[in-house]
Amino acid sequence: LLNFELKPCRYQKDKMAKTSHKKYFMMQDIHDEYLLADVKSLLDSNADQSYKESIGKLVQWLNGSKQTGLYLYGNLGSGKTHIAMSVLNLYAKQNKKVAFVNCPNFAYLFYSSYTEDDKREAKLDQLRNAYCIVLDDIGAETYSSYFRDEILFPLLNDRMEKHKLTLFTSNHELSELANHFRFNQKGDDEALKSKRLMERIERLSEPLLIAGSNRRISR
């Protein structure tokens, strides 16, 4: 009688060891390769001076009291998502619960009628209580006043009241993001609702420009 048993090779074991912190991600809407992102390796030979200055400010934030999160903004390919995942990996390796949320996917998930209410609430509960979350690419979602008022606002308001660490990445400056959330699908001006949401974002985070050339090309 033959028995077959599959065992990981040393390369697979090494990869498993480097990504073992994945179990602390309550939500991970990004490829597993980003689990290898590391704050210590953010600077490389391709880094230009403006990017180095941005990372220097990030390191200062990490070494500080971190009473608020970060609003990472900049051009396409500047490395915002990689940086944000580096921070999440740092906390996950400290056995802290974290979550990475892609806002365009998140908006579709919660606007879709296929998402059951109990599953929706369970996901939101995880995001409300995680030690640190990243809301990636905010402002790139197909606009929905429902997403702004029923999902984002209560989530961010809850995290603000609980003093939870929250990071954002965006291609928009804060003023541009406010304009994105200002108008509903019919084109009605809802400046007050946009202002209420932006107040939460600004209370939860401080803006940090990720400058430099397109790192997707340079790599």
What average pLDDT do the residues reach?
90
Please state the overall shape, judged from the principal axes of the Cα atoms. globular
Q: Which structural class best describes the helix and strand composition?
A: alpha/beta
Spans with pLDDT under 50 lasting ≥5 residues? none
Strand fraction equals: 5-15%
Order of helices and strands: HEHEHEHHEHEHHEH
Q: Work out the helicity level.
A: 40-55%
Distance between the termini: 52 Å
**Number of separate strands:** 6
Regarding quaternary structure, what we see is single chain
User: Main sheet: which strands, in order across?
Assistant: 1-3-4-5-2-6
Radius of gyration: 19 Å
The total count of helices amounts to 9
Largest sheet properties: 6 strands, parallel
Tell me briefly what this model is.
It contains nine helices and six strands. The protein has 219 residues and is an alpha/beta fold. Strand 4 (132-136), helix 6 (145-161) and strand 5 form a beta-alpha-beta unit.
Task: For this entry, give a set of tags.
single chain; 219 residues; alpha/beta; globular
Structure report:
This protein has 219 residues and is an alpha/beta fold. The chain has nine helices and six strands, in the order αβαβαβααβαβααβα. The protein has a six-stranded parallel beta sheet with strand order 1-3-4-5-2-6, with helices on both faces. Helix 6 (145-161) links the parallel strand 4 and strand 5 (165-170). Helix 5 runs parallel beside helix 6 (145-161), helix 6 runs parallel beside helix 8 and helix 7 (174-180) packs antiparallel against helix 8. The longest helix has 17 residues, at 145-161. 30% of the residues are buried.
